[in-house]
Amino acid sequence: MSIADNLSQVKREIADNCHRFDRPESAVTLLAVSKTKPLADLETAYQAGQRLFGENYVQEAVEKHQQLAHLPHIEWHFIGPIQSNKSRQIAETMDWVHTIDRDKIARRLSEQRPAEMAPLNVLVQVNISGESSKSGVLLEQLDDMVELVQSLPNLRLRGLMAIPAPQADEASQIAVYEPLQQAFLALQTDHPEIDTLSIGMSGDLAAAIASGSTMVRVGTAIFGARNYP
């Protein structure tokens, strides 16, 4: 199937799960994970109506941002790990960053965001499975990170992101997401401007939508198997 057909199918799956879990279709936004994909694929998805693109690798993200700058309303989300020496490139090009989990990185992104640009939309990455190999703050550290990010003038805290460990079935996926969903709802009570819960990929889309996701990150189901650099 074509990229346009794949996009339609993914959007139908999102809509079906929104209906299944009694949520409006408009509650969940699709982020197309375009890492390692050629510009032509992104342009095809754009022509099919996709506007949000997620990138994991800094140099690739910056190059795509430059080469597709002529496309109106395209929105760039950085969803990979951030090295200190790459933070300036991210601060100068991206619209969103999903992977804030260290004080140093948050401070650098705020300091390096150009004054003429709008504040950088950011999500705090939470390690909800407690895996030592995974990035993200633990839930008990979340309040401190939220307080820091909200104190930084060139960042705008939009919510939370997580990548849980794989689970055997949908019920287990939902169970893993439950503490994160509760933390997100609690944050919204104190900070009503927080509006984004970035959870859910191809393998756990239904569970994420059941758990209050407002943004799902889908790559392979749109663009096909990954191309490794």
Automatic annotation (TrEMBL):
Against Pfam families, the record matches this protein to:
Ala_racemase_N (PF01168)
Q: Which PROSITE patterns match?
A: UPF0001
Q: Where is the Alanine racemase N-terminal domain?
A: 14-226
Signal peptide coordinates: none
Q: Per the record's keyword annotation, is Ribosomal protein included, yes or no?
A: no
Q: Which residues carry this modification: N6-(pyridoxal phosphate)lysine?
A: K35
Q: Which CDD domains match?
A: PLPDE_III_Yggs_like
UniProt keyword Mitochondrion present: no
Give the matching Gene3D superfamilies: Alanine racemase
Record's keyword terms, sorted: Pyridoxal phosphate
Q: Which family does it belong to?
A: Belongs to the pyridoxal phosphate-binding protein YggS/PROSC family.
Q: What does this protein do?
A: Pyridoxal 5'-phosphate (PLP)-binding protein, which is involved in PLP homeostasis.
Q: What is this protein called?
A: Pyridoxal phosphate homeostasis protein
